[in-house]
Amino acid sequence: MSGPREECGVFGISNHPEAARMIYYGLYALQHRGQESAGIVVGDGPDLVGHKGIGLVSEVFREDNLGKLRGSSGIGHVRYSTTGSNRLVNAQPLTILCHRGPLAMAHNGNLVNAGKLRRQLEEEGSIFQTTSDTEVLGHLVARSRQKDFLEALEESLQRVEGAYGYLLLTPRLLIGARDPQGIRPLVMGRLGEAVVLASETCALDAVEAEFVREVEPGEIIVAESEGGGFRSIRLPVSPKTARGRSTGLCIFEYIYFARPDSDLEGANVHLVRKRLGRILAAEHPVEADVVCGVPDSSLSAAAGYAEASGIPYEPALVKNRYIGRTFIQPDAVQRTLGVRLKLNANRKVVEGKRVVLLDDSIVRGTTSRRIVRLLREAGATEVHLRIASPPYTFPCFYGIDTSTSTELIAARKKVEEIREVVEADSLGYLSVPGLLKAIDRGNGHCLACFTGSYPVPVPVGAGKFALE
């Protein structure tokens, strides 16, 4: 609820007679990753056809327009705009037509050198149609001197820097690519003869596809539109990638972004979040009567905190599931109304009680304060806020919409000062060692938002990058 604004979700399938419908179901499962726009593009013979719009998957697609998307391969996208504004022109998948033929692209993540590359491309004569960093890759592929399309793509991916889970579609190929650090997730599955690529395993479950494996960092998966086969291409290890700096999956996938029924690196997200809550209870115990979580991402951590502390868990906050996420409201007034409409405190559960409130993170502090007030107005005598992650201190440049430190309350204030702002009786954050202990994957993760150690060097001014 008070967590960071998230990135996007991608889903692709090849060699399936109902490709568009499968993508539709997959995007439904990934709706939590982006609620501003949705789109699907499929291969129809020598051409690509698509439909996209502003809104939720259920608002953008109806039987009349979905039925027109005929093809055996395709890609889909749900978007939250991390770069570029929320306009229809920026909705994905993006489709371009060049001398190589039609190409559609869907992107989860953010390219930190997109501004520099765009300026270079414009000086060389490129004309951009969107304000999204995703389009940069298309121009690089179109202008590459490599004759083979895949060689042009490989060359272009070596020029972009940052985090990405890319899906690309040509009339004969479905392609998935993951950034060399593996910051953004991408998984592969099988549905009969079809190859499926998606941001999370929950999307594979939605179409009854069998999980095969995660796409490896720096790997390109190429699936033919016919035949059901695929091949793997590895991007060369660049000096920047080999510096020995911390790399790995974005830690917030475990904390907040991924659905609890998804698996990441072989670990179930729900069970990881329960461990976050258990460790948080050991690090920051408190005498209280009730434990509750902010729906939905904090419920698992709240259950873990309750189990470890012996304090009963209760659903003290009830969510209206027919309202979109409050953080996509563009201004403070609408966000305030969004919280009121979206959450209600169960008075009979909290009245006269000391409440432990679990949340995944604090970004600006405004939403946390509103929820604390909501519990007090319902009769809670004390509200003890526990955060299932360390203080969010450094901005993210890899696909989360916190590009400046001024947006982050923990970058400007100490824990006690934050407690005063959110009006809680006490405030406790999970430690970085506690976070790593809960995940315990041993693969390395991107912790830049907590430690300031960025796995991909960030150019000066990257935080102000918005192509408008």
Report on this model:
The chain has 468 residues and is an alpha+beta fold. It folds into 2 domains: 9-245, Aminohydrolase, N-terminal nucleophile (Ntn) domain (Glutamine Phosphoribosylpyrophosphate, subunit 1, domain 1); 273-442, Rossmann fold, CATH 3.40.50.2020. Helices cover 28% and strands 25% of the residues. The protein is built from 16 helices and 23 strands. The strands form 6 sheets. A 7-stranded antiparallel sheet has the order 3-2-4-1-10-9-11. Strand 12 and strand 13 (230-234) form a beta hairpin. Helix 9 (269-283) crosses helix 10 (299-309) and helix 9 (269-283) packs antiparallel against helix 15 (432-439). It is globular, with a radius of gyration of 22 Å. The model is unreliable at 242-246, 325-330 and 463-468 (pLDDT under 50).
Strand order of the largest sheet: 3-2-4-1-10-9-11
CATH architecture of the largest domain: 4-Layer Sandwich
Q: How many distinct domains?
A: 2
Assembly type: single chain
CATH class of the largest domain reads Alpha Beta
Rg: 22 Å
- Which overall shape is indicated by the principal axes computed on the Cα atoms? globular
CATH H-tier superfamily of the largest domain: Aminohydrolase, N-terminal nucleophile (Ntn) domain
Q: Which structural category fits the helices and strands?
A: alpha+beta
Biggest β-sheet description: 7 strands, antiparallel
Through-space gap between termini: 29 Å
Sheet-strand content, in percent, reads: 25-35%
Tally of separate helices: 16
Helix content: 25-40%
Strand runs, count: 23
Under CATH, the topology of the largest domain can be stated as Glutamine Phosphoribosylpyrophosphate, subunit 1, domain 1
Report the mean per-residue pLDDT as an integer: 89
Low-confidence stretches: 242-246, 325-330, 463-468
